[in-house]
Amino acid sequence: MKLDNLDRRILTALQRDGRLSNVQLSEEVGLSPSPCLRRVRLLERSGIIRGYRAELDRAGVGLGLTVFVGIKVGQHDDEADSAFRGAVADLPEVVACYLLSGESDFLLQVVVPDLPAYERFLRGTLLKLPGVIDIRSNFAISTVKRETALSLAHLPGAAG
């Protein structure tokens, strides 16, 4: 889907506040409500807008420890890859998983209440994942920047 300036403005507004009513959104982007709603629905159907969620404060809900876990696997065939990915997809503690090039094959972002909870997760789950031969844990001391909104400066109509 080719995005234009209006799409960029809609996406920027919804990233800032996903609870905007269609009337509020249409006023903000300078479009009447019906065409605005049609564009939003098209962005949703195309998969560009993947959903709407509440962003929670991790510490506020008792999840005070973020760990970045580098994982090296022993096998790189389709069956092993599928088994590993499937197992990771089922772990609620893993909020992100990336396939990497470099020292590790995968990088997991794990969110748990505290260090004892991570140790239990490491011993009881991560070390038992299919194909894992090495795990390196890096603990987040503080969050310098955590942004969920994507920059859309490369799209048509962006300033600068």
TrEMBL record:
Pfam families: AsnC_trans_reg (PF01037), HTH_24 (PF13412)
Coiled coil: none
PROSITE patterns: HTH_ASNC_1, HTH_ASNC_2
Stretches assigned to the HTH asnC-type domain: 3-64
Domain of life per record: Bacteria
Keyword Kinase: no
UniProt key word Transcription regulation: yes
InterPro entries with a match to the protein in the record: ArsR-like_HTH, AsnC-type_HTH_dom, Dimeric_a/b-barrel, Tscrpt_reg_AsnC-like, Tscrpt_reg_AsnC/Lrp_C, Tscrpt_reg_HTH_AsnC-type_CS, WH-like_DNA-bd_sf, WH_DNA-bd_sf
Alphabetic keyword roster: DNA-binding, Transcription, Transcription regulation
Gene3D superfamilies, per database record: 3.30.70.920, Winged helix-like DNA-binding domain superfamily/Winged helix DNA-binding domain
PANTHER family (alphabetical): LEUCINE-RESPONSIVE REGULATORY PROTEIN, TRANSCRIPTIONAL REGULATOR AZLB
Protein name (Swiss-Prot/TrEMBL): AsnC family transcriptional regulator
Natural source organism: Alcanivorax xiamenensis
